[in-house]
Fold:
Amino acid sequence: MSLRIAISEGDGIGQEVIPEAKKILEYFLPDADFFEVELGLGKWEKTGCACSSEDIRDLKESDAILFGAVTTPPDPDYKSVLLQIRHELDLYANLRPIKSYGVDMMIVRENTEGLYSGIEEIGEERSTTLRVVTKAGSKRIAEKACSLVLERNPGRPLVIGYKGNVLKSDLLFRDTCMEVAGSYGIKTKSVFIDALCLDVLQHPKNYDVIVTTNMFGDILSDVCGYLTGGLGMLPSANIGENHAFFEPVHGSAPDIACRGIANPVAAIRSAGMMLEYFGMRSEGNILEEAIQSVIRSGVCTPDLGGSASTNGFGSRVFEVISKR
Structure:
């Protein structure tokens, strides 16, 4: 039975970078069934719904999802598409690799709790967002992080990013991660998240696997974009027990949308993470080597100092792969 892969370009530059990634997936997965699922602000403006129950059903019936980006307007009636998908598909582990010039680390972000719990009260005089940290949620993200430590480099410690001196709920997260790591014989290092954001930039080679809570993981991985050349280089995978969702870390970037200058590397690397999810590690390595080859040749989008278009860069990567 062939794989069923959902493709959702979303809004803004998602509609430009995802086609480049899809072409590569079609090359490596010629027998897969690719189908479109429209999500995001554009759909909301047309139908009043950015992500319907039918959309969720379609996503659940896929073997994996490749997603672009969404624009979230400042409208209290607009529900976050990403939060809805993460909760409905229980995509609890957000994996964000940081690779560049000898740096190779993995940020493991808890993906369904914290400040992105979706539990909010919005008012004119006071608005609140409930920060949720549970033992069960902390335990399963710690388990995922520990499995990556053992896979990547068992001798390195698991770094726990937290802010327990101010947010007491983080003590439950830290202690649970330490407990799980101890059961695997893995050493841990707990670091306050603000200090971690600075030190990871100053000494990136000191880090291998970092586990942290939802918002902290979002911020930390964006900070680490500096090490790679920008957000246009950063892919991610959202993994659950039964579903997998792959997306570039960058947003919809409406300021550069429709100009053909968006960097497709993050989207293409997200496709590479999907290949690895399917057990196609060698194909993922071929894809990464092609990306690096094209960049070394001087073909880069404007954010990396070049003049290549989104399609121009994507086409060169595809050309390198297809000639192997």
Remarks:
- DSSP finds eleven helices and twelve strands in the chain.
- The radius of gyration is 19 Å.
- The mean pLDDT is 95.
- The domain at 92-235 is CATH 3.40.718.10 (Isopropylmalate Dehydrogenase).
